[in-house]
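Action item from last meeting closed. Structure (433 res):
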């Protein structure tokens, strides 16, 4: 045991009336909703990078956190793991997620970095066996180091492409060895800054080739988890190829990968793309590629991906409504890709940020389940489109332009506008929240 979280108790469910700050008010892991426990519905995961690797810097200032594991030695990486698994246990979080660069020191060579990762993976294995914590997904950091400043799979330099492919292989091997349930590809810099020096066709084809190699390797080694792509718009590049769910699905269809790859969708990225979180989830559900989610929020005044913990129950409820309509998570879950603010420097802040977010998600999911079980929202939606199930509606789906034109003339069709009833529907949603 370390002393970083000394004096902080395990967070347990005490109910809405408790005045204990270190308790769940709404997240009871054993509570059954729609035939499953909240633990099995939500499948919470802690993001290793924001919780243990981020130093609190921003574009105008450096480190504000002083953590005893900050440094480049393997002993410090193991101390970081010790603290991380203590936090997983305090929160009763069943899963965690990581990039390679979060957990191992950077070596002087690729071989040294790979060796460091292998050593930490073995250490993780011991910790996971001791605590029962599992790996929701692993991924590769192909964006921080300056070698990736022009992208990884889309880089104009084939040596960077090769380095990226080799890094992905080691991270897939690590994920597979630890029993990870998904592998995520996050294109942090798969985009361009200016068209003046960009070959769009070559970059997109190289990106597709990398993804195809990942899928092929999954089958070669017998990895049973899902391959997930995480859409990411605009920042840090001017344009990202994996802009949103629609863009990624079109890409998958173009290269014949739509049956091999699903999506990990983040709330903050949805907002940056000009969408709502539920929009992105609904699109993925309609396409049949909803895999997992990163749950956070942006500061709507900043215009930046601020990765804050969720605190808006109605927004979260609408997100989980789409997840439940899709049948719920299978290999995916709720990863908190969220970080405490750079002024929140105490260990308690790290615990309470997660605990509060878990409560918000529990409230949101329970509200979403009530909406779905009650059926009023779906009933009103079906009512709006009911005309398409009539004989006339069916004729419109099978007739050609000439026939429809003649029908409108013959029957003197002159439709009147009908209310979309948006305010009434929003009031209905708020009744459940």
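Sequence:
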């Amino acid at each position: 045991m370390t002393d970083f979280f000394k004096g902080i108790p395990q967070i347990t469910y005490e109910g809405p009336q408790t005045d204990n700050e270190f308790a769940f008010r709404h997240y009871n892991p054993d509570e059954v909703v729609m035939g499953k426990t909240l633990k099995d519905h939500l499948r919470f995961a802690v993001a290793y990078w924001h919780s243990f690797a981020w130093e609190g810097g921003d574009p105008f200032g450096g480190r504000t956190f002083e953590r005893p594991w900050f440094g480049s030695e393997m002993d410090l990486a193991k101390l970081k793991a010790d603290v991380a698994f203590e936090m997983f246990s305090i929160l009763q979080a069943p899963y965690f997620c990581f990039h390679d660069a979060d957990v191992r020191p950077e070596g002087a060579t690729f071989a040294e970095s790979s060796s460091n990762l292998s050593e930490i993976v073995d250490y993780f294995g011991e910790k996971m066996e001791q605590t029962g914590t599992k790996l929701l997904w692993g991924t590769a950091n192909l964006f921080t180091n300056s070698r990736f400043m022009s992208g990884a799979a889309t880089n104009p330099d084939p040596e960077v492409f090769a380095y990226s492919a080799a890094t992905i292989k080691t991270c897939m091997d690590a994920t597979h060895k630890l029993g990870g349930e998904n592998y995520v590809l996050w294109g942090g810099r798969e985009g361009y800054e200016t068209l003046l020096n960009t070959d769009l066709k070559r970059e997109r084809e190289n990106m597709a080739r990398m993804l195809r190699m990942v899928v092929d390797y999954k089958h070669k080694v017998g990895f049973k988890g899902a391959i997930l792509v995480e859409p990411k718009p605009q920042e840090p590049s001017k344009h990202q190829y994996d802009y949103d769910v629609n863009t990624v699905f079109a890409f998958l269809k173009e290269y014949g990968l739509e049956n091999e790859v699903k999506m990990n969708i983040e709330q903050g990225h949805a907002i940056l793309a000009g969408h709502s979180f539920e929009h992105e989830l609904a699109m993925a559900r309609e396409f049949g590629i909803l895999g997992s989610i990163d749950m956070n929020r942006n500061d709507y005044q900043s215009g930046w991906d601020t990765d804050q913990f969720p605190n808006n129950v109605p927004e979260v409820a609408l997100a989980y409504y789409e997840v439940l309509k899709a049948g719920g998570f299978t290999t995916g879950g709720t990863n908190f890709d969220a970080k405490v603010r750079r002024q929140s420097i105490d260990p308690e802040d790290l615990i309470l940020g997660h605990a509060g977010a878990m409560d918000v998600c529990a409230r949101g999911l329970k509200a979403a389940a009530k909406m779905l079980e009650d059926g009023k929202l779906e009933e009103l939606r079906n009512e709006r489109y009911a005309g398409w199930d009539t004989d006339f509606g069916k004729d419109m789906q099978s007739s050609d332009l000439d026939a429809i034109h003649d029908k409108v003339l013959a029957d003197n069709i002159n439709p009147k506008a009908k209310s979309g009833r948006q305010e009434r529907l929003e009031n209905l949603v708020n009744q459940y929240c």
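Note appended to the action item: The mean pLDDT is 97.
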